[in-house]
Amino acid sequence: MGSQPGPGHADVERLALVLRPAVTGRPRRRLPRWGSEPLLLAPLLLLLALFFVLPLGLEVWSSLTQPRPGLSAYRAVFQQASFLRSIATTLQIAATVTAAAGVIGYLVAYALTRLRGRLLTLMLALALVPFWISAVIRSFSWMLLLERSGPVNGVLLRLGLIGQPLQLLYNRTVVEVVMVSVLLPYMILPVYSVMRGIDLDLMKAAASLGASPLQAFCRVFLPLSLPGVASGGLLVFILALGYFVTPSLLGGPKEQMVAVLIYQQTQLFNWPVAFALATVLLVVVVALYGLAVRLLGLGRILFVQEPLP
Amino acid sequence: MAEPTGPVRGAHVVVEGLCKRYEDSEAVADASFEIQPGEFVSLLGPSGSGKTTTLMMIAGFVTPSAGDIRLDGRSVIGIPPHHRQIGVVFQSYALFPHLSVWDNVAFPLRMRKVPRPELERRVAAALEMVGLGGMRRRRPSQLSGGQQQRVALARALVFEPPLLLMDEPLGALDRALRQQMQLEIRELTSRLRLSVLYVTHDQEEALAMSHRVVVMSQGRIVQMGTPHDVYWEPQDTFVARFLGEANVFEGSLLGGANGRSVLVTEDGLRLVTAHPVAVANGDRAAAVIRPQAFALGRGEAGSNRLEGVVLDVQFLGEVVRLTVAASRRRVQVRLPASMASRPPEPGARIELSCPPEAVRVVPHRP
Amino acid sequence: MSRGRLLLLLGAWLVLFYMDLPLLVVVPTSVSAAPYIQFPPAGLSPRWYGAFGADPSWTGAMDNSLLIAAGTALVATVVGTLAALGLQRVGRGRGQWLLAFLLCPLIVPHMNLAIGLYPVMARLQLVGTPLAVVLGHAVVATPLVVLIVVATLQRLDPALGRAAASLGANAWQRFRLITLPLILPGVLGGAAFAFAASFDELEIALFLSGATARTLPLQLWQQIQFELTPVVAVASVVTAAIFLGGLALIQGARWLATRRITVEGAGGG
Question: Which end of chain B, N or C, is less surrounded by CB atoms within 10 Å?
């Protein structure tokens, strides 16, 4: 019997190459984890702990312990009519702004869904401008428009509609008008993104089943778009409650919003009252946020858009 | 096609008692099988059968709850995926979108710090091997589905792994392309003498490409064997139905003699099988007959005979498919089509015959 | 286009005008010749730009704002991206609640944060330093980055990471070669938002910047109330210009980063 061809050098080498990684791979008793998330989250958690949770906690704590332990600061707040009026005003303004932004924002979002291409990109960019331009500048520009020697008064005078320039600033309405213009993007974006997700075939199906365009809109489109309205509305309301810049520049002294009131108190070195007011505001905002997360689910709240398309 | 980068000796893979338990379910229970060096093995089963989970455990992306996986005698349990030296082709191809075709294929060699001249030679050879030599600068988004598939293959093979895992790679392709790719993959892997584990839910694909087929259902391996074996000798009705069209006659085993056994159905039809039966006399069982095992007419002596009425006739080009009402059921029959003879018309009474060799009696399993 | 649709479009444009047009008012006002605010201006003169450039309280505020915004963008982007990557590993259940907590700074009124941070920073003796403002701004800017990067990560095919691992890449290599290039457009978008959030912010700066780290919005806010001259309009224009300039830069970087990922058109052979 002739010799069987045994494994040649080349084969042995190949085999060694194949086996080598299995040898160098270090088997461990426990399987290694894929990365370590606590390490990645640590910087943010540290930042928030020191500069978010701590300050807010301090605020609440101080409101209950200064000038002496107890509810004296809160009593000072709730027993003063002007403070209560301010809280009421804040709620009213926030509600009005949210309602107005809701209606206007819905219409704009709906219009956007009908667009494509360059026009859509342009209009979306324009709708997002308030995100980028400081609220101070916006309030200032409205001031320029509406002041006594400004163009609006000028036109009204020229047209003979009024005899002398009107004081259009420093009242609740102008605050609401400007706040709506600033907060509209926060309504438009969530509503738009929900609307974009609505399958247009549903409307066609409704039509084929005998629904008029109005019925199809009311019974199919509107209900499906409501989650966007809900999350946008909640967001706008919460932001409006705590708003400072616009009311501080354009608001009247009698109907001030809570944030301005808080600032004024700190300037008067009335820190306990400031902390108490701030805590009230905080509690309301957190409660609303919690409500939103419960009702709408976190996924709905988190609309995310890239800054520009 | 150009010469491959050199014959690679595939690994001997042993999977033993592999289990994966989740909180409320058992994805894989006690899977054991082997892949001989150079063998092409398919894991075949419906979705949820545990085949992808098994593949992921071998690749190292899922931690087994129990069991062992050995490559050429060494256990890989505990070794992270990037040390396992196993090539993987994913269902979605997973090509890196920001890298060119060239950079995608060169990636594993760069991870292994292969020197530049050798890297260029091997990447070029790998691309030639899959027929994409001219596409090196393209991005994945500029390629068709079939081309992306080939890049994924080239990338998984360029570092000459001893084992190649493929997770339903052809699912997204249309039928003609799939069949072509099946041939190419089979040809390539056998030329390179790789060990391959191929996961699919398509029985035709598994039968066409594999040396052996491992059939899984609900986390367990139900049968292993060559394509011929699992097709013609299914162990139960699940395997029979999954591997292809099957007529299943339920009844009970009457017993038999001389190497033959008889199953009798509820309506009294007797079917004789020439194969050993793993069922006790009197127990419930099922007789499995493939559609192409029937012939028109009375057949030879000793054949099983059925009478029925033709319900439907479908001309499929190569075969004619008849649906016949017989023995209180619908029987599927496949007859070779020829230009000369015309198939029976719907409504006609016909006789079908089937030899005992083509009848398999198995335990009944839904 | 049907009449209804035309009306709708018209209405949308009207709303956009309402939102954006008033801003343009500051431009002509800034070139007014008169020493008081006048719109429309009677005469035109660029002298107020000169006044802006010569006044250290304005130029100083601008420098501070740029410094602080850049610092905030840096901190927020790094910390936020790391957090987003960490969140990705945490998974659905606990991850949702963690995310809800991490996003709280976005809905808490800045005034609350400002008056809460003041005693903390005072204790750390940081009031009046840019660092204090950066830290305060980072708190409200980082969640924006987290939000955007999380969304970007969700769009990433998880099979890519596994493919890279099967090809021999360890965790660091997977991050550096595969994950990072693919999320870079999102990360840069987050950086842009963080920059904007800081550059425009008022309340926290109001309390933390003291006399030495004055920011531009703060300077604007005070001057509007106390000394309103056309310089204020100039400052507004300059602010908006710097801002849009910075934005354009970041958008350019994003576009470049996105091009690496998707190449349109015929590729080379």
Answer: C
**Rounded distance between C-alpha atoms, residue B126 and residue B2, angstroms:** 9
The residue that leads in pLDDT, C41 or A232, is: A232
Task: Please report residues of A whose CB lies closer than 8 A to that of B78.
Answer: 27-31
Chain C hits for A213, Cβ within 8 Å: none
The distance from CA C98 to its chain's CA centroid, rounded to whole angstroms, is 24
Per-residue pLDDT for B67 more than 70?
A: yes
Scan for tokens 């963008």, then name that residue. C73
Report the residue from A55, A144, A242 with minimal CB separation from C37: A144
- Note the pLDDT tens digit of each residue in B88-139: 999 888 899 888 999 999 999 988 889 999 999 999 999 999 989 888 889 9
Does residue C139 contact residue A48 with C-beta atoms inside 8 Å?
yes
Decide which of B229 and A154 is more confident.
B229
Residues B121 and B212 in one domain: yes
Is B238 within a domain?
Answer: no
- Does B174 share its domain with B57? yes
Instruction: Enter the pTM of the model.
Output: 0.78
Of A18, A25, A31, the CB nearest to B72: A18
Interface mutation target, options C27, C37, C111, chain A, most CBs of A under 10 Å: C111
- Please tell me the total count of domains within chain C: 1
Task: Read off the pLDDT of residues A258-277 as tens digits, 9 standing for 90 and up.
Answer: 999 999 999 999 888 999 99
pLDDT of residue C6: 87
Q: How far is A135 from chain B (nearest CA, A)?
A: 39
**How many domains does chain B fold into?**
2
pLDDT band at B70 (very low <50, low <70, confident <90, very high): very high
Residue B75: pLDDT over 50: yes
- Provide, as residue numbers in chain A, all residues whose Cβ is less than 8 Å from the Cβ of B80: 31-32
Q: Tell me what pLDDT residue A1 has.
A: 36
Contacts of C135 (CB under 8 A, 6+ apart): A47, A51, C75, C121, C126
Give the residue numbers spanning the domain of B270.
245-363
Domains of chain A: 71-131+180-301 (1.10.3720.10)
Residue B276 lies in a domain: yes
Q: Look at A249 and C9 and tell me if their CB atoms are within 8 Å.
A: no
List helix spans (H) across C91-215: 92-102, 104-107, 110-123, 130-154, 158-166, 171-173, 180-200, 203-208
Spell out a b/e string for A152-170, using b for 16 or more CB atoms within 10 Å of the CB, else e.
bbeeeeeeeeeeeeeebbb
Burial of C6 from C-beta contacts in 10 A (0-12 / 13-18 / 19+): exposed
CATH number assigned to the domain comprising residue B317: 2.40.50.140
By CA distance, what is B62's nearest residue in C? C162
Helix/strand/coil (H, E, C) string of A201-254? HHHHHHHHCCCCHHHHHHHHHHHHHHHHHHHHHHHHHHHHHCCCHHHHHHCCCC
